Amino acid sequence: MQIYLPIAEISVNIFLILGLGGGVGFLSGLFGVGGGFLITPLLIFYGIPPAVSVATAANQIVASSVSGVFAHWKRGNVDLKMGLVLLAGGILGSTVGVWVFAWLRSLGQIDLVISLCYVIFLGIIGGMMLFEATRAIFRTRRRGGLVRRTKKHQHSFIHGLPFKMRFYRSGLYISALLPLAVGFFVGMLTALMGVGGGFVMVPAMIYLLGMPTGVVIGTSLFQIIFVTANVTFLQSVQTQTVDVALAILLLIGGVIGAQFGAQFGARLKAEHLRALLGLLVLSVCLKLLFDLVITPGDLYSVMPGDL
Amino acid sequence: MTVSSRVFLTVILTGLLTILSMGTVVKKAVADPLVVDLSNHLVAITTGFTGTKVLLFGAVEDEGDVIVTVRGPDQDMVVRKKERKVGIWVNSESARYKNIPAYYASASNRPMDIIAPPEVLLDYRIGLHNQRFVAESYLTDADKKVYREALVRNMQNAGLFGERPAKISFLSNQLFRTDIHFPANTPTGTYTINVYLMRDGGVASVKTTPLVVSKTGVSAEVYAFAHRYSALYGIIAVIIAVVAGWIASVAFRKG
């Protein structure tokens, strides 16, 4: 059954889009990730214009983050103060990002930048995940499940920065500039890539800010809601590329898929899950890289609009 | 009434009748050499739109060839060329074109080059190769050709430019018909359909009829809303997502 998407201005197979949302939802439930980094490239592979894919994915991530944050909020796993500082940076970053997005679009380079961002980030994250998970798998086999712990208070240049702030829930006393910068950077990625940015935010919170793992997911989900909401709003105003019909289809599929994913994920070992996710991330990265490197069928492309 | 007045009236009436009958004779002599209509003057893009075809039919009074051209609304186009830089393909040079039809198709009952000499077709801008696509950007003559070909090729691949003229079939010596195909990605706007009656290598008559392609129903309203009240649209999009996320978390809560 075909449905005509009002903003993307093409007709798509309704079951295919539901399935796509469901598949990514399944994976996000399985691995505990947002899935924005998968949904945007898949929409582009399907033929949805990249600009619409990015803006609509941001809209869909609002929904998946809201549904995820409640459980964490109840358990007190949200560092509100840290979330708000990250959010301030995120709002700034995503606003700049939407502006950069419109500028790159007028230059005709937006597709390239989206692809390059994906190749770089998916390559780094996927590679690291796979490497770390494989090591963990072999270590558990050898030594029976010892996990390496990083020291909580390592002193570096980070602790010399001004505007120090106390974050009670995370037990941190660090410069507010640091979470602001992290938020800003991830906010820009949200605007440019249509991702929640959890896959950058979570490692940054653990390794750069030194937050305890318990509050990391909840806090990142909390701030992702507002940053993606900001991107949805700004893209609607500036580029009119948010397709509500597409977003609704994706989130119906996504919500259902996530439930099955979570149940299935409970039966797998954590490091096996991470290794699988790493492989998946790397394969999307390679596909995008491949498309950039192989000689295109037509060297010329035609787009309506201004130069 | 006197005899003279009766004669006078008769003369007047006869004269009037003569003039009237002459009028009808004259009218018959200039009867339309070409009559054309469409099965539908509005192509409605609804939620389930996957492309459609419109039947064009008509009649010619005497024998002749018929050519049909369909031209979509004009729009600006940018043609970009990819170049390999540090191993990856990057958009580099580009050319901007003004007033490019968003759709172009033609049809004829016989090959066009048999119907009329190329000068005539060029004069009337009949056929894809006779469309004037002028680049606003500076291009060398060699580039002009390459970019024009790229523009046409891409539009043909998108199904928006007809690859070759479609067939017009004559049902008798006078009645003809042809189908105009509109793909799923048909741009909206007002289309101009020209029907040429060709005789002895020249244009004997032309009929122009408009065709409107527009979105209707829910998708049209959503599109119009997104563009007219974009801020409100953005807020609604966020609210829908928040509510959907909240419902999901309640519906699937465990324990």
TrEMBL record, chain A:
GO cellular component: plasma membrane
Residues passing through the membrane, by range: 12-45, 51-71, 83-104, 110-133, 172-193, 205-229, 241-261, 273-294
Swiss-Prot/TrEMBL keywords: Cell membrane, Membrane, Transmembrane, Transmembrane helix
Name of protein: Probable membrane transporter protein
Transcription recorded as keyword: no
Family as reported in the entry's similarity comment: Belongs to the 4-toluene sulfonate uptake permease (TSUP) (TC 2.A.102) family.
Compartmental location: Cell membrane; Membrane
Topological category with respect to the lipid bilayer: Multi-pass membrane protein
InterPro entries (UniProt xref): TM_pro_TauE-like, TSUP/Inactive_protease-like
Pfam families cross-referenced by the UniProt entry: TauE
Domain of life according to the entry: Bacteria
TrEMBL record, chain B:
Taxonomic source organism: Thalassospira profundimaris
Membrane spanning stretches: 231-252
Keyword presence, Transmembrane helix: yes
Protein name: Transmembrane protein
Lineage: Bacteria, Pseudomonadati, Pseudomonadota, Alphaproteobacteria, Rhodospirillales
InterPro entries, sorted: CHP02186-rel_TM (IPR019088)
Highest rank taxon of the organism: Bacteria
Keyword vocabulary terms for this entry: Membrane, Transmembrane, Transmembrane helix
